[in-house]
Amino acid sequence: MTNPLLGAPELKQLIQRTRTIGADTSMVVFGGGNTSVKGEVEVDGQIKRVMWIKASGGDMATATETTFAPLDLDILEGLKKHDDLTDEEMVELVSKSIMLPGAPRPSIETLLHGFMPFKHIDHVHADAICALTNHPDGERATREALGDEWAYVDWMRSGFPLSKVVEKLGNYRGVVLAHHGVITWAETSEECLRETLEVVEKANKFLRERSKPAKVEKVEEVDVAEILPGIRGNFSRQKHKVAYVDRRFLSISNRSDVRSVVAAGVSSADHMLRIRPFSVVLEDTSSEGVTRTFDEYAESYDAYTKRNLHLLPEGFDLLDAVPRVALVPGLGAITSGETLQEARMVAEIAFHTHSVAAQAIDSFGQGQAMPDSEIFRFEYWPMELYKLSLKPAPKKFSGRVFIVTGAASGIGLGISRHLASLGASLVLADVNAEKVQEVCSEIEREFGVDARAAAGDQSDEAIVMETVNLAVQTFGGLDGVVANAGIAVTDNLVNLSIDRWRKAMEVNLTSAFALTKHSISVMTRQGIGGSLVFNASKNAFSPGAGFGAYSVTKAGMVQLMRIAAIEAGSAGIRSNAVNPDAVFDNSSLWDQGIREERAATHGVKPEELEDFYAQRNILKRH
């Protein structure tokens, strides 16, 4: 039987309205906004007054029953008697109203919704509303656009004081909050949604009528593959990040006043939780220019921190002085995250934040950021930082990018799966296009990481360049490669054809050389080191008769590893080789008669070959 707190018709209406709003990213972005509904439910034979409100950090676009916390409305309304409460006191008292064990933590704005007498309430951070308020004359513009039916409140951080202010504004049609969107209410869900949509459209109409065209510079297109590694390297100064390119930002990054757009700050305070309060503009995309810009950002951020250090809550460590968003004229924007999904989310939020600033400038001549001290207070606000604690802990290789060749079977498949289990982003290369795509799909489903397939013959340098470029274009760069692609070529030297010899060299050694060459180039430009791993063989040190071509290529790979270490070590690039022997699991190395040929050489049956090889190792086991 469904719990009445989860099956109430009011909650179903709330979910539908919330999803409708959340589907429009100009209304709210990931984790932002709030909706609520009040109703009555019979619990344990008693009729209880209930308010359902979105949980702290819950995503409106994907809302379900568990996105909302059911709260005892009588307890919430009883808190009106207080003149003031700290955030901690408020959270403790609100927690006593939770009616369902295991329910998520309710929004910091719970009392704002609970103190109002209206059944349905929406709070959205609509772009249009934020553009209306985020400039020096925001209150006048809001009244001109919306009329006197709408109350206006200057920036206040969410919490008990704001709840008490809004409580007194119930005779208005709704409340506009500077840098924080608009609150609407009604007695039916349909009417509440209509109020929300209508006020946002009214603001949009006003902005369109006042907007003047921005001056856009003619900027040459940027070579993405050339600049991305260096930018990703700077994003990764404190911890490894992947980088994502979003060309939607071209209309912003190519503006002549792009620095003014960035200086106008975030459109809604909660945006800084994901994208940090300040972005950078990369007008000089040379290696020196990018490093200088990130250095200047760090200096500026450190100065901002020192100015506001007295506001730092006790027990909090300082956040890193690394931006999450870089606007690049001629390209758009590059954003960073521990995963590609996170980097895309950062891009989505930043696009709305900077679009709002651009709209405010176009409509009112200038934008206006929140006060410096308020930005700092919000950045280190425990109530907001709590949302980040809901994220799964990053895995060991989150933010790192690896290429594995020969990834569709055998050792390459095992390595790929292990890297995925550690959270790595992957480019998996193999000559078997169908199989490697299947592996990518399986890994994404099982481990929740991003994996891209690079099909083709890795002994072809052009294919290798495409593989490396796929890592750069998709994830921003490269942290490690596993040169694993290989084939077994058998025969005594006197019987070995020159074509088969060359084939062994090309697949086993030339492919590793090409991958090494182009990977070092990318890693060097990133400036954060890297790792080269060569899958050589026991045959590199202990060859066997009839396996000459294979053994020579594997010995060459060990020497290639040593040269790579000598030449790239100064750039922090490590180079190592592993020397496995007779690995059969999921391996295609033994296909096409190789198993039978090696069994004959050693005088055993083909099905006994694994046991034969196992007896050669010290542990005497597979």
Structure summary, number of beta strands: 17
Strand order of the largest sheet: 3-2-1-4-7-6-5
- Please give the count of helices: 24
Let me know the largest β-sheet: 7 strands, mixed
Molecular shape: elongated
Query: Which whole number gives the mean pLDDT?
Result: 92
Termini separation comes to: 53 Å
Please mark out the parts with pLDDT under 50 across 5 or more consecutive residues, or reply none.
none
Q: How does the helix and strand content classify structurally? A: alpha/beta
> What percent strand?
5-15%
Radius of gyration: 30 Å
Helix content: 40-55%
Describe the protein:
The mean pLDDT is 92. The protein is of the alpha/beta class and 622 residues long. β16 (530-535), α22 and β17 form a beta-alpha-beta unit. The protein is built from 24 helices and 17 strands. The strands form three sheets. Strands 3-2-1-4-7-6-5 form a seven-stranded mixed sheet. The longest helix has 29 residues, at 498-526. It is elongated. α10 crosses α21 (498-526). It is 45% helix and 15% strand.
Descriptive keywords:
622 residues; alpha/beta; seven-stranded mixed β-sheet
Topology diagram in text:
Elements: H1 4-7, H2 9-22, E1 34-43, E2 46-54, E3 68-72, H3 73-78, H4 87-95, H5 110-115, E4 120-124, H6 127-133, H7 138-146, E5 150-153, H8 160-167, E6 174-177, E7 181-186, H9 189-210, H10 224-235, E8 242-246, H11 250-253, H12 258-263, H13 272-275, E9 280-281, H14 287-308, E10 325-328, E11 332-337, H15 340-364, H16 372-379, H17 382-389, E12 401-405, H18 410-421, E13 425-430, H19 433-447, E14 451-455, H20 461-475, E15 480-483, H21 498-526, E16 530-535, H22 548-568, E17 573-578, H23 594-602, H24 609-614
Helix pairs in contact: 6-9, 6-15, 9-15, 10-14, 10-21, 14-16, 18-19, 20-21, 21-22
